[in-house]
Amino acid sequence: MTANVDIRLAPRQRLARGLKYSTIGPVDVTRGVAGISLNTVSAAAAGLRKRYESGKLRRQLAAAAEAVAALPEVIQEAAAAPEPKRRRRPLVIAGVAAAVIAGGAVAFSIVRRSMRPEPSPLPPSVEVTPKP
């Protein structure tokens, strides 16, 4: 007899298991990525809270307020200056994202094919059509 025990996986373990198994993979990959994202956000929030309490963030916010106060002058100076060339950064980011997705698809198909058993070249040891 086995007991049904709900084992709580860490997001990193869930992501690894999701990439390993193809049947429950998409669910585990999604939950793993979401868990890792939530952990990252909570860690960042804790870091910001510590920085604010220590006073660093207060000084940075004061400096940002001064920069915002000087923003109209900067905008007027920028409007008078000639326009710089357009950057192609969004195209580069989109290309890298497409390459990563394509690489993941290739890796997924390779892993999935490697998990399939190869058919045996030997004939079956048991007769396929049973005789009455």
From TrEMBL:
The chain crosses the membrane at residues 91-111. The keyword Cell division applies. It is found in: Cell membrane. Coiled coil: none annotated. Keywords: Cell cycle, Cell division, Cell membrane, Cell shape, Membrane, Transmembrane, Transmembrane helix. It comes from the Bacteria. Required for regulated cell division, cell wall synthesis and the maintenance of cell shape. HAMAP family: CwsA. Belongs to the CwsA family. This is Cell wall synthesis protein CwsA. It comes from [Mycobacterium] fortunisiensis.
